[in-house]
Structures are given as C-alpha cells and as structure tokens.
Design a protein that fits this description.
Layout: E1 3-6, E2 9-12, H1 13-24, H2 26-42, H3 46-65, H4 71-78, H5 86-96
Antiparallel strand pairs: 1-2
Helix pairs in contact: 1-2, 2-3, 2-5, 3-4, 3-5
C-alpha cells in the first residue's frame, strides 16, 4: 500500500483517502474537527486520544466504504483488511487542536 507524506507525516493510502475526502467535504470535515477537539479535551493523555480517534477513523472508513466512492471502489478491489489510522489520528490532533504544554521535568531537590 503506497504512502504519501503530508506535513512531515506519512499517510497510508486509506488514511490519505480519508484526509482528502474531509478536505473536499466541509460538513464531514467540521464533524471531524469537532470530534477531534472533543476527544483531545476529554482525554488528557495524547496517546490515548490518538488511540481513540484511530479506532473511530477506522470505523468511519468501513462505513464510508459501503456508500461513497472512492471508498467503495477501494473496498471492492482490496477488501477491508484492518489498516492503521494512527498517523492520520495524530496528524488531525496536531492540525485541529492547540498544542499541549510539555510536561515539566522534575529536578532533584538539593
């Protein structure tokens, strides 16, 4: 499966398809912007936020593959083998949320 690089992130073909679809469909993009922001706000751990979004993005890919081209076309050719959406989840968190402050390093008392 081919990969493209976007903002320093390599997306697999399925991730890129979702990203492109969201860019071309403002209603879908707004829904996902709200979802990403809500998930980031409710989940203090950024890794867990990305994990939750990754699962939601895969479910979205499967749902779209039943009703919308090019998802349907791709699923017809390739089937629906489980594909990671982690890079896309992390990219959307970076693009659509405020950066989180870095944790302060503890210095030994002395």
């Amino acid at each position: 499966m081919g990969c493209r690089s976007l903002a320093g992130v390599s997306l697999n073909r399925s991730e890129q398809m979702i990203f492109d679809y969201l860019q071309g469909n403002p209603d879908e993009r707004h829904f996902w912007q709200d979802k990403v922001r809500s998930t980031a706000k409710s989940e203090p751990d950024e890794h867990e936020a990305a994990r939750r979004l990754e699962a939601d993005l895969w479910g979205y890919y499967v749902e779209r593959s039943g009703v919308v081209s090019p998802f349907r076309d791709e699923a017809g050719r390739e089937g629906l083998p489980r594909t990671s959406m982690r890079n896309l989840a992390e990219l959307l968190l970076r693009l659509w949320t405020e950066p989180r402050p870095k944790p302060q390093r503890q210095t030994p008392a002395g």
